[in-house]
Amino acid sequence: MRSGRLVLRQALSARQVGDLRSWIEEIESWAEAGGPGLHHFEQTPNGARLARSEDFDPHHGDLAAFIRDEVITGPLRSLLGEGAVLFKEKINFKHPGGGGFAPHQDASAYRFVDHHVSVLVPIDAADVDNGCLSFADGHTEGLLAHTGGRIDPEWVHAATWVPVEVEPGDLVFFDSYAPHRSDTNRSSSSRRAMYLTYNAASHGDLRSRYYQDKRALLDNLAEGAHSETQRARISINDDFLGQAVPRSNSTISSASS
Ligand SMILES: O=C(O)CCC(=O)C(=O)O
């Protein structure tokens, strides 16, 4: 993965794509019902909408099987040089008006082991208009200078950013040191994407530890969220450019776009 990413076009069958869409709708309905899983909301021009769901692997057998399917774990084995273990899983819903993400490297947020590979599984087609991912070419190793995960603006301006437009059925594998970013969804339909993150099996199963740590961090932030300067967060990195809704105020519009 010299460029920090590997794009496999139409790696999934039409059946898998259809199944994924209905499973993701189930997860979205869990968010509206208050769980299971960890769900984050954002303010959009259409009201508060679901921004992200995560920590659903233990609660959804079909998704858990997909997460461990050879179509994903085969390429991961080649990329990591050994078997892969799930580190974390999330869906970014990016409904119309949903926020983008500032340029960052996932490595600055993913603790406990210093190398991960993520797989982007598009649920909807993603393009520049609805906020697809863009990657900076030419940087594959080492943590860049950053503030709260946001890469220093000087580096960002000098880099060449390449949008990676995708269709459902495609898979994009990317390294945790690959700098990437995305924009607001300016279209009138949702741009849903699932991200599955793995580490090499020899480093152990760190997923429960990751979610314990993240939930504690978000709880701490929520306690301090009364101050004017403290914004609600959905990520460990402070890289989300949307307006996260504090968890205590989370009421959402359920209409899917
Ligand atoms: O889904 C997106 O637009 C960006 C995702 C991303 O970079 C992240 O969640 O860290």
Question: Mind explaining what this structure looks like?
Answer:
It is built from 5 helices and 14 strands. The chain is of the alpha+beta class and 257 residues long. It has one domain (5-249): q2cbj1_9rhob like domain (Jelly Rolls, Sandwich). The strands form 3 sheets. It has an 8-stranded antiparallel β-sheet. Strands 5-12-7-10 form a 4-stranded antiparallel β-sheet, with no helix packed on it. It is globular and about 45 Å long. The termini are far apart.
What's the layout of helices and strands?
Layout: E1 5-8, H1 14-33, E2 38-44, E3 47-54, H2 61-67, H3 70-80, E4 84-92, E5 101-104, E6 117-122, E7 133-136, E8 146-147, E9 150-151, H4 153-158, E10 161-163, E11 171-175, E12 180-182, E13 193-200, H5 207-223, E14 243-244
Antiparallel strand pairs: 1-11, 2-3, 2-14, 3-4, 4-13, 5-12, 6-11, 6-13, 7-10, 7-12, 8-9
Bound molecules: 2-oxoglutaric acid.
